[in-house]
Amino acid sequence: MSEVKEFKGLSKEEIKKFEFLSDKYADDTFKCIRCSYCQAKCPSWEEFGWVSHSARGRIQTARGIVEGKLRPSEYMLRAVFTCNMCDYCLLKCPAGLPTTDIIRALKHDLAKQGYYVGVHKKLVERIQKYGNPYGEDPAKRADWMKEE
Amino acid sequence: MREEILRELEKIVGEDDVSTDPVEIYVHSRDSALFQGFADVIVRPESTEEVSQILKLANDYKIPVYPRGSGTSICGGPIPVLGGIVLAMYKMNRIIEFDRENLMVTVEPGVICDDLNEFLAPYGYFFPPDPGSSNAATIGGMVGHNAGGMLALKYGTTKDWIQWLEVVLPGGKVIRTGSNTLKSVSDYDLTKLFCASEGTLGVVTKIGMRVAPKPKYYRTVLFYFDDLRKAGNAIVNVRSSGVVPAALEIIDRISMKTAGEYTGMDLPEAEAMLIVQTDGLVEEQVQREIEICFEAAKKAEPIEWMMAETEEERNKAWAIRKACFPALARKAITTIIEDMCVPITKIPDALVEIQKIPERVNNLVSIGTYGHAGDGNLHPTFLFDERDPEEREAFFKATKILYDEVVLPRGGSITGEHGIGIARSKYIPKQLGKETIELMKGIKKVFDPNNIMNPMKGKPYGDEAIIPEI
Fold it and tell me: Distance between CA atoms of B253 and B247, rounded to whole angstroms?
């Protein structure tokens, strides 16, 4: 259900924590000309139908963080992490922006600060605990082989 | 926005199609222009009935409504400057009917131009208006701004292909304009009134359009000139040759140089380049027409020319024109395309004056110009860094020089195909006069007495519209 939410961005100190994004790609987020060429056939746009869940939306979200107008939220995580990094936007961008690199940087900086979606959290826990993302006992790794 | 209104919106379209999340609000706060405004809520209707209920609710509570397609506008057209509802037409994207015998297609406003043409191609037809953004622009947005493009010289703009519209008015009433028939003078031509109304009168929910047989043959010729005035003479010669070319495009020195670097093509040193193209269904006719254009342009003494004999050569010629915008866009942080028209005889003079503008603002902006020479519609493209207050101010000063000193004194128009939006509001009275503004205000009041439809956009208000300083 929709709610009226407070529209609050990040402080300068908080923006600095998005180090990858603000060091390498801040200019690029401003260079986005918002032409929507990257949006029209973006797979996650076609699936979800919200601009936030499209390439254009993600580049704009990155700009929103860099200029201190947006802060991480559950909704933002869903919008950013549903990008499957297919590079469609990279091929379409007339301004020649490294679109997937910007999105990757955004994912990286969010995850580094502990903002990641539930399923990723599970994967990390399993890798830390079992050394694999499936949560399987490493001792049983060779069980699939038939005995000679 | 009051909670009860949000709940009402959710009742109309369903919870999944209403968003108040700051991220969603933020990504709907801009188009390609320099302005920004924040809505209270983004709503995705799926039918005329839903749009009708939303507009009734909005009208009852006097809440601003901003229809939005792909947000490819470059004049601040869909920016929610006073808060309220962004009516995102994404889900109304169906091609409803193709009546092949009557050459008519009926679509919803969210259909993307290229998708429509992809649908029509196997039948041998196309929808001719071709804005540069056709791979993203929606038909609804094209109607709202009366989009044109490179083919407008021969095929006209969007309004020339629209037969009828279904429109929801503020208050929820659904009306239909025009007719299925090629001829009809039953109404005040409300169809054309809604074309280019920029969402200030109502919400278009269905569009009945004509389509044209897709040309089978193309011929293209390229000319280079060492003098802008010679290029201007060539444009006039071609236009008065008796042939209407499908496209007649001009590129100035700066754009040509940048596009040459971008494409890796070795282009001659020249002040301007012209591209002329003819098209049609009969090969001999298309060939004869390009020969007539060629002879006409040659009289203006080009320094070089190239007749594209093969499809590869034709694509190469167009690659330069198509590279103008992306090549310029890579040169700066901020790229803003302007949209001016002058009578074709004034094009060379206007281009000379445009090239002088950067010096007038201490070279804080640079400008490359290209455009549709055949109809006098040029797109000076301004490059600067919007984050630098001095450069930002220089940009606004430069556009003022463009419209006040280049376009209007030459009897031109402040916009050919991009619209007024926020960007060009203040120049309307200078072009049309206060009386015309008063008349437009009156028209607006008839359709939208509570002023809920895309408020504070220039068309009905001119310089009285608020330009947000963001």
Answer: 20
Q: Where are the beta strands (DSSP E) in A25-112?
A: none
* Chain-chain contact of B27 with A3 (C-beta, under 8 angstroms): no
**Three-class secondary structure of residue B340 per DSSP:** strand
Q: Considering the domain boundaries, does residue B100 fall inside one?
A: yes
Domain endpoint, select from B290, B321, B352: B321
> Which range marks the domain in which residue B21 is found?
3-90
Residue A147 lies in a domain: no
Task: Record the pTM.
Answer: 0.93
Distance from CA of A121 to the nearest CA of B (A): 22
Residue B244 forms part of a structural domain: yes
Nearest to B32 among A8, A35, A71 (CB): A35
How many structural domains is chain B composed of? 3
How many distinct structural domains can be found in chain A? 1
CB B9, CB B43: distance < 8 Å:
yes
Contacts with A36 from chain B: Cβ below 8 Å: 70-72, 133, 136-137
Give the CATH number, domain containing residue B21.
3.30.43.10
Answer with the one of B90, B123, B145 that is the final residue of a domain: B90
- Could you report the per-residue pLDDT of B114-173, keeping only the tens digit for each? 999 999 999 999 999 999 899 999 999 999 999 999 999 999 999 999 999 999 999 999
Angstrom distance (rounded) from CA A33 to CA A104: 20
* Cβ contacts of B114 on chain A, cutoff 8 Å: 40
Domain that holds residue A131: 12-137
**In a shared domain, residues B62 and B85:** yes
Could you tell me which chain B residue has the CA closest to the CA of A40? B136
Coil, strand or helix at B309 = coil
A110 touches chain B (CB under 8 A): no
ipTM of this model?
0.93
- Sequence-distant (6+) residues with CB within 8 A of A137 are A130
